[in-house]
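Justification of computing resources. Each target in the renewal requires a structure prediction run like the one illustrated here; the chain below, 424 residues long, is used simply to show the kind of job we budget for.
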Amino acid sequence: MSGINSKLNIFRNWRKKLNKFFPSLKIGTILLFLIFFQSCKNSLVISPAINANPADNAACGDCHGSSTNFAPPADTSGNTSTTSTGVGAHDAHMKDGPYRVALQCLDCHLVPVAVSAVGHIDSALPAEVIFGPLAKTKGVTPVWNGTTCTDVYCHGVALSGGTNNAPNWTTVDGTQADCGTCHGLPPDPPHPAQADCETCHADVVNAAHQIINKSLHINGEVNVSGGAQTCTSCHGSGANNNAPPPDTQGHTATSFTGVGAHQSHMTTNISANISCVECHIVPNQISDPGHNDTALPAEITFGTLAKTGNLTPAWNGTTCANVYCHGKFTGGLNTSPTWTTVNGTQAACGTCHARPPSTGKHRINDHDNLSCSACHGSNYSSTSVRIVDHINGIKDVGGPGSQIQSWNSTNKTCDPTCHNTKSW
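Resulting structure tokens:
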């Protein structure tokens, strides 16, 4: 096919020269094609495909683009306007933009290894598009319909809240790649509601929402730098503690699961204030497994106090069940409290255990008329507790104001003032 290759080169060179003088008519392409077809019809089939020799040394720029930039313009028909589908936003993608570095051809679509590669020029225009690895990041399945790209990673289909996830290919005025078009500012849940991107993405963006390292944006990864993150970067106000409100979505009402009874636990009148880690684990850093690596609602990995007594607490998104703090004991009236009910009724005396409990010697006749304080010390009664040692994971027996002289927690024996040592 060396003769054909030579004619191909002649055809390409003269086509460009003639089209330069007759750009609107493309007369050079038409005339030379007819001449070329006549001279090569016995050795070259052009219906519908061009059967080129895979060993040809043809470069991409021989048919589209240029010798220095293979992407259109011009397209294979010689068009140079971005309104032509063959040109469109090619150049806009190939140059550095305000939000990313220049893309490579292969990022968007397959690049053939030879002119005759399957899927290259073996069908009529418009060209078929076999999407590349960046476009398919996050397992998405992009679609090209001849006008728009949809379901493509680069324009936010794997994110949420973007205003234009299906850009028009021939619109190149920058409006389709502005902040907020690919993902919300901030993205929808489970992303936190805070819009100060630099707090978590300090290596990527600054406080003015300017991308400061374009290689870390639209690169197939979520680049979290750490920045100056604290718990309250995403939830809580930090006024008293790091717990909500607000929750990560900005909600402040206790009727929202993200808020619920957090503050009722952090500042309670039935025990010492409960710390976060007593109910659930607290991550050391934002990227710790089990923190924010799944969609809302948040998963709960229970803490040490909640599991006291070798319990296995359960959270179903509405209630906590089988948790020490609300009723490891028997006889409680509400041992599965609703998280968003914060009127105090779920932590009243008798809700977690009976008054008195039915365990041990609580209900023998000799104890019927005793106050809780007789065994547990001052401030304990059927309606009150001593908050310093209530709900602390330990059975506190004795102490100031009680009748207990000694208590052996291992053998469960007590030595009260009212009788000699007895097994509980």
